[in-house]
Amino acid sequence: MTSSYLGFASFTAVILYLVNVFYPMDILIFIYSSISMGLLFFAWAKMNKGNRIVVTLLLFSGITIFLTHQVPASDILFSFGQNLNLLALFLLIPLFGTLLSEAGYLHNLQMAIRRRETQKKPHPYLFGFLLTASMGWLLNLGSMPLVYKIGSESFTSFENKRFGLTILRGFGFCMLWSPYFVNVGLILVLYDLSWQQIGGFGITLSIIYALLIWLFFPLSAFKNGQMVDNNLEAEDNQNKGGRSLKPLLLYIVILLCLSFLLEALLPVNMLTVVAILAVFYPLVWAAAIKHGRTYTQEAAGYISSSFDRIYNEMGIFITAGFFGEALSRSQAGEWLSNVILASSNGIIPLFIIILIGCVILLAMFGIHPVIIVLGLGSSLSPAAFGVSPAFMGLLMLAAWMLATQVTPFSGSILMASHLMKEKPWKIMQKNAPFIVTAVVVMTIVLSVFHKLHV
Questions:
Q1: Distance between CA atoms of 78 and 415, rounded to whole angstroms?
Q2: Residue 330 phi, psi (nearest 5)
Q3: Which of 31, 203, 207, 252 has an alpha carbon within 20 to 30 A of 47's alpha carbon?
Q4: How many CB atoms lie within 10 A of CB 348?
Q5: How far apart are the first and last CA of the chain?
Q6: H-run or E-run covering 108
Q7: How far, CA to CA in Å, does 402 sit from each of 244, 254, 271, 344?
């Protein structure tokens, strides 16, 4: 029961945040920041020991900085709500998927893939990547188990661990550009960018990343991999009707058009636009197709259980916002900029490698990338390194994506571990050569972007 209340409290906090974006009021900031502080307390109590230690250290460090600089108590409280924008994205985005599932669109997709498997030569790994790349940009981490489920029930034969690794890498494809991802939303806010300023370059990085996946595919097989075989029969004629993919495509196309249109028309960033759409778009669509009641029930069930689903990320996001706000009051940014600038000697490729290396190394010690990127991003001024905010944003996106693909503590690695029934460290070892190569390639491509004055 307590978890249910905490879920609705989380939803209340992000709704109040969205209202405050359009109608700023100190009382709203006070309420949602207070709720955030309470949520952090309960999240801390449920976290594993490692995350609890990291969160405690960051809280202690942040409080120390605040007290040293004699920051008013109200500002300290408000810092707990600093990352409500990210929490809104993480909490609300799954509502898009709730509608897709409840309306039967995902089932229609699965049936279409199954029909194709029985009629043409199967390509389970290619389709696994394409499904993850085409669904992950909207459904985030939830796309990984969904794609695996579709594959396990729709493909005639595939090697379990190889398929899981393909899904993991496909998920990284989305992290470089999707405006529905937390990391992209954070970068846009951090450097005051519109999606259009980095979206095209992010997609370019994703395409290059996809080519690397293709090149490394022959090396992606596991020695102890097990084959999964399904005996699929052609669909009965009576089951073929009513399974058009047109409603799914229409749902996605209208959502994308609305996202970019509202960003252009409203005085808010893409992160806020996406969060608002997540509240209203599925609800309006459900009402239009006469699924309003069932969708509302499903959405309420999701909200009530949301705290148990994302308490770990919730605690980390709230803490990262608190610590990032404290860090902005200190001289840490200037000191860190000087250290990195001296280490790279003004050489852009070296600067790129050092920054990516720092993010990956810290992530390997269990520090969530949102903490790393928020700390580095709020401390490092692009102008100090002779680069543009857009370039710095792309660099941070690449670093975040690469870190989550190799650290055994990331949500995507842990999800892949569960799906593949393999230890996270084994997946990290298998993926390491691919990531090392990706770091080199990304460094080259980003250096070219800099030469082109991105």
A1: 33
A2: -105, 180
A3: 31
A4: 19
A5: 51
A6: helix 105-119
A7: 37, 31, 22, 20
Q: Which residue has the tokens 């000191």?
A: 335
> Identity (one letter) of the amino acid at 277?
L
> Is 176 in a helix, a strand, or coil?
coil
Residue type, 285: W
Q: What is the pLDDT of residue 134?
A: 86
Using alpha carbons, select from 302, 263, 257 the residue that is nearest to residue 279.
302
Residues belonging to the chain: 454
Rounded to whole angstroms, how far apart are CA atoms 134 and 143?
A: 9
Task: State the Rg of the chain over Cα.
Answer: 22
Hey, what are 190's tokens?
């951090």
Block residue for tokens 């409280």: 77
The one-letter amino acid code at 398 reads: A
Cα separations (Å) of 256 from 95, 180, 241, 253, 442?
Answer: 15, 10, 28, 5, 27
Q: What is the DSSP string of 263-274?
A: HHHSSS-HHHHH
Distance between CA atoms of 402 and 399, rounded to whole angstroms? 5
Average pLDDT over residues 22-50: 92
Q: What is the pLDDT of residue 14?
A: 94
Residue 436 tokens read as 């090392």
DSSP string, 348-398: HHHHHHHHHHHHHHHHHTT--HHHHHHHHHHH--GGGGT--HHHHHHHHHH
For residues 411 and 182, the answer to whether their CB atoms sit within 8 Å is no
**pLDDT single digits (tens) 414-440:** 788 888 888 888 898 899 999 999 999
Phi, psi of 244 (to 5 degrees): -70, 145
> How many CB atoms neighbour CB 87 within 10 A?
25
Rounded Cα distance between 400 and 420, Å, is 23
Q: Which amino acid is at 115?
A: R
pLDDT, tens only, 169-187: 999 999 999 988 888 988 9
Confidence at 1, pLDDT banded by 50, 70, 90: low
323-368 residue pLDDT tens: 888 887 877 767 777 788 788 888 999 999 999 998 898 888 777 7
Query: Can you name the residues that pair with 227 across neighbouring β-strands?
Result: 159
For 308, the token pair is 């148990």
Give the model's confidence band at 230: pLDDT under 50 very low, under 70 low, under 90 confident, else very high: low
In one-letter notation, the amino acid at residue 138 is L
